[in-house]
Design goal:
- The protein is of the alpha+beta class.
- Helices cover 30% and strands 25% of the residues.
- The strands form 4 sheets. Strands 1-2-3-4-5-6 form a 6-stranded mixed beta barrel.
- It is globular and about 60 Å long.
C-alpha cells in the first residue's frame, strides 16, 4: 500500500484550524488505494506520529507523550521514528500539506519536501510564499491587472522608532475607517477595524504581536464577500461555484469562520448573484491560479463594493481544503483527493524527467585538478 503523509498543526497561530483540516483529510484519504500517515507538527515544531492522531478528540487532552517523534533524512523520501536507532515508518509516495500559516502555507514545507524528492499535494514554494504575504500578493495582482484595494505597509521597527510619524502618514493617505491586517496571517487573526487614531494605534499594537509587517487598507462598509476555489487535475482546471459567507459582524471573524460554522445557515451557496459577476469571479480565480502556478486546492476571497470587484486574499491552504465548495459529501472529497494525489505524483515525475546536469570543463581549468587555487600575478 502506498503511503500518503499528511502534515498539519505547526507553530502558527492557525495551529488549531490546521488540526481540523489535517484530521479531516487523513480520514478522507481512500484507504483502498493508500495508507494515510499523520505527521502532527506541535506548537514547538516537533514532528509526531501515532494512530491516535486520526481522532480530533485526542487533541483536546493535550497529552502527546505516547506519540513517536519522526523525521526525514537528507535526500531520502523515507519517514523514520527517532530513538536510539532510527526505525522506518515507510517510504512516502506523496505528501499532503494541511499546515496553515508559518512553515507550511508559506512554502517552507514545500521546499523541504522537494529536497527529499517527495511529491506534494499543495502549492510549491514560490506561489505559497507570495500568496501568504498580502503585500507581495498585491504587487503580483497589479502585474496581472487584477483589481485589489490600495494599501500601505507599516513595519514594526519603523512604528516603534517613530509611531507618531507613521500614524500621520497613514492618516494622510487613507481616511477612517481603516482595516489593519498582519501581512502573513489568515483566519482573521490579528485583524481589526479602526474608526479613529486611538483604535488605529491599538489595532497596530495587536497586529504587531503576530507579524513585523502590517497592511493598512480602507475599510469598505456594507460590502459583500465572495469566495471561489480552484484546483488542477489531469483534466485541467476545476473552478468551484461562488460562495457568499454571511456574518453579522463588521468583518468575518475567526469565530465566524471556525467556531460558529453551521453549514448553510451562515453562507449563501451558490451565491445569488448575476451570471456576469459569477463568471468574472470564476475567470479571475482561474487566471490567478494558473499565472501564479498554484497546485492543490486554493481558495480566493473577494470583496464586492459599489459594483466593483476586488480580490482580497489568496489562501493556498484553505480551511478543510474548501472541499465543500466542490462537493457536499466526504465521499466526493475522497474522490477529489484521489485526483490531486495522482496529478501531483505525475507532475513530480515529469519534473524528475528533466535534464538537470551538464558536463562542463570548469573543474579541468588550471589548478582545479590538484585542488589548489590558481595564483595570480600582482599586476593581473
Amino acid at each position: 500500500m502506498k503511503n500518503i503523509v499528511v502534515f498539519f498543526g505547526g507553530i502558527s497561530s492557525e495551529h488549531d484550524v490546521s488540526v481540523i483540516t489535517g484530521v479531516l483529510t487523513l480520514n478522507s484519504i481512500d484507504k483502498t488505494l493508500y495508507n494515510p500517515i499523520p505527521v502532527y507538527v506541535t506548537k514547538n515544531g516537533e514532528w509526531l506520529y501515532g494512530e491516535e492522531l486520526f481522532d480530533v478528540a485526542f487533541y483536546k487532552k493535550n497529552d502527546f507523550s505516547k506519540l513517536k517523534r519522526v523525521t526525514l533524512l537528507s535526500g531520502e523520501n523515507t519517514l523514520y521514528i527517532k530513538g536510539r536507532k532510527l526505525k522506518k515508518v515507510g517510504d512516502i509516495f506523496c505528501a499532503v500539506n494541511c499546515q496553515h500559516g508559518l512553515n507550511g502555507e508559506d512554502g517552507t514545507l514545500a521546499g523541504l519536501l522537494k529536497l527529499h524528492n517527495i511529491p506534494l499535494v499543495g502549492s510549491p514554494l514560490f506561489s505559497s510564499s507570495l500568496s501568504i504575504d498580502k503585500g507581495f500578493t498585491k504587487a503580483v495582482l497589479k502585474g496581472l491587472n487584477v483589481e485589489c484595494l490600495p494599501c500601505l505597509t507599516v513595519y514594526k521597527g519603523d512604528f516603534i522608532k517613530d509611531n507618531q510619524n507613521e500614524i500621520l502618514s497613514i492618516e494622510k493617505e487613507i481616511s477612517y475607517p481603516i482595516i489593519i491586517k498582519p501581512a502573513n496571517l489568515g483566519s482573521s487573526i490579528g485583524v481589526s477595524v479602526a474608526k479613529d487614531k486611538s483604535e488605529l494605534v491599538s489595532g497596530l499594537n495587536v497586529a504587531f504581536l503576530y507579524d513585523d509587517k502590517v497592511i493598512i487598507e480602507k475599510y469598505l462598509e456594507n460590502f459583500k464577500e465572495y469566495n471561489c476555489a480552484c484546483y488542477q487535475d489531469k483534466s485541467g482546471y476545476v473552478v468551484s461555484k461562488v460562495e457568499r459567507p454571511l456574518s453579522l459582524d463588521k468583518i468575518l471573524s475567526f469565530k465566524d469562520k471556525y467556531e460558529c460554522y453551521t453549514g448553510s445557515l451562515d453562507r449563501e451557496f451558490p451565491a445569488k448573484i448575476s451570471k456576469e459577476l459569477t463568471e468574472k469571479i470564476q475567470q479571475t480565480t482561474k487566471l490567478v491560479y494558473k499565472a501564479c502556478e498554484f497546485s492543490g486546492i486554493v481558495r480566493i476571497d473577494y470583496l464586492y463594493y459599489e459594483n466593483k470587484l476586488y480580490l482580497n486574499e489568496i489562501n493556498s491552504i484553505p480551511g478543510s481544503l474548501s472541499y465543500y465548495l466542490f462537493t457536499d459529501t466526504l465521499k466526493g472529497f475522497t474522490e477529489i483527493l484521489n485526483l490531486l494525489i495522482s496529478f501531483s505524483v505525475e507532475s513530480h515525475n515529469k519534473f524528475k524527467a528533466r535534464k538537470f546536469t551538464y558536463q562542463s570543463g570548469v573543474l579541468s581549468i588550471n589548478g582545479a585538478k590538484s585542488g589548489k587555487a590558481k595564483t595570480f600575478d600582482k599586476n593581473d
